[in-house]
From TrEMBL:
Signal peptide positions on this chain: 1-20
SMART domains: Inhibitor_I29 (SM00848), Pept_C1 (SM00645)
Provenance organism: Vigna angularis var. angularis
Residues of the Cathepsin propeptide inhibitor domain: 50-106
Gene name, Swiss-Prot/TrEMBL: Vigan.03G287800
CDD domains cross-referenced by the UniProt entry: Peptidase_C1A
Domain annotation Peptidase C1A papain C-terminal: ranges: 133-357
Gene Ontology annotations for the cellular component aspect, listed alphabetically: lytic vacuole
Protein name in UniProt: Cysteine proteinase
InterPro entries (alphabetical): Papain-like_cys_pep_sf, Pept_asp_AS, Pept_cys_AS, Pept_his_AS, Peptidase_C1A, Peptidase_C1A_C, Peptidase_C1A_papain-like, Prot_inhib_I29
Keyword field: Disulfide bond, Glycoprotein, Hydrolase, Protease, Signal, Thiol protease, Zymogen
GO MF term (any one): cysteine-type peptidase activity
Any Pfam family the entry gives: Inhibitor_I29
Length: 364
């Protein structure tokens, strides 16, 4: 209990700094809150863990030097996972397929949300009634969510968040679930934020979901995944307007109020969401509700539902959570999904949420 008391005290002192910090600063803050000496026992079987990791995820390295370097990174990530587990006790943290990557490598290869502000003139979603919201809700149960996809080592998370929201909106408009092309956005979308010079969607180098909705409005729509398949690499644009499968009618941003986010989710379908992913590299399952997490946004995901669960040792009650569809394949997290605490804008999950409407047309 003493450790938790220390965490709680340090939380209030550190939140202001964490809110605008980068990933490295988040890691430093985590190490300050949980002393390094408390995690050394976790390193006793590092070689065994590394062998299991290589076998499970098919990891091979070209040279002994590279192997030894990756083993060193792996050991550092074992420590990080243990630190994360102490600061996020309602989730499970440990070895994932990203455990041989440094935080900087992970950020560069598997995130990709550009640090942009929402435009001041962005269309605001209308206020919806919240008095009759269901206790639990999940668009997967209603057929509005495609299978979990894998962005690979390309910073294209923003494109998967965008297509996921439009796939859901198209389903609501037509009754048809169509997997849409992220690669079209990677190759063809170069829309820029009107308020920040040079802040443009840049394929594997990052982008923003609202920029992508603007691109789709201008282009007329998005092709099917099967007609414009994903390669995970920047390439020349091959968009064929005659094969458009879904089109954007409009989009808007939702306020920070979590009841409004829930109401928009229930009424309008899955929502494009930005999040701070500092805990996601080590996440295995459960409801992530860390005591400390920065609010700077670096990853685009899809909000598909909400519920309650995961016994919370501090609050002695069930923990409400958002259900997040990620784009790192089904071998990550809970079959590709992430549960994050609902109610406190944890890791900035409520800070940049967008809803999109689809034109009522049938795809080819």
């Amino acid at each position: 209990m003493a450790r938790y008391s220390l965490c709680a005290l340090l939380l209030f002192a550190a939140v202001a700094a964490a809110a605008g910090a980068n990933t490295d600063a988040d890691d430093i803050l985590i190490r300050q809150v949980v002393p390094e000496g408390e995690v050394e026992d976790h390193m006793l079987n590092a070689e065994h863990h590394f062998s299991n990791f290589k076998a499970k995820f098919g990891k091979t390295y070209a040279t002994k030097e590279e192997h030894d370097h990756r083993f060193g990174v792996f050991k550092s990530n074992l420590r990080r996972a243990r630190l994360h587990a102490q600061l996020d006790p309602s989730a499970v943290h440990g070895v994932t397929k990203f455990s041989d990557l440094t935080p900087a490598e992970f950020h560069r290869q598997f995130l990709g949300l550009k640090p942009l502000r929402l435009p001041s003139n962005a269309q605001k979603a209308p206020i919806l009634p919240t008095n009759n919201l269901p206790k639990d809700f999940d668009w997967r149960d209603k057929g509005a969510v495609t299978n979990v996809k894998d962005q690979g080592a390309c910073g294209s998370c923003w494109s998967f968040s965008t297509t996921g929201a439009l796939e859901g909106a198209h389903f609501l408009a037509t009754g048809e679930l169509v997997s849409l092309s992220e690669q079209q956005l990677v190759d063809c979308d170069h829309v820029c934020d009107p308020e920040e010079y040079g802040a443009c969607d840049s394929g594997c180098n990052g982008g923003l979901m609202n920029n992508a909705f603007e691109y789709i409005l201008g282009a007329g729509g998005v092709q099917r995944e099967k007609d414009y398949p994903y390669t995970g690499r920047d390439s020349s644009c091959k968009f064929d307007k005659s094969k458009i499968a879904a089109s954007v009618a409009n989009y808007s941003v939702i306020s920070l109020d979590e009841e409004q986010i829930a109401a928009n989710l229930v009424k309008n379908g899955p929502l494009a969401v930005a999040i701070n992913a500092v805990y996601m590299q080590t996440y295995i399952g459960g409801v992530s509700c860390p005591y400390i997490c920065g609010k700077h946004l670096d990853h685009g995901v899809l909000l598909v539902g909400y519920g309650e669960g995961a016994y919370a040792p501090i609050r002695f009650k069930e923990k409400p959570y958002w259900i997040i569809k990620n784009s790192w394949g089904e071998s990550w997290g809970e079959n590709g999904y992430y549960k994050i605490c609902r109610g406190k804008n944890v890791c900035g999950v409520d800070s940049m949420v967008s809803t999109v409407g689809a034109i009522h047309t049938s795809s080819q």
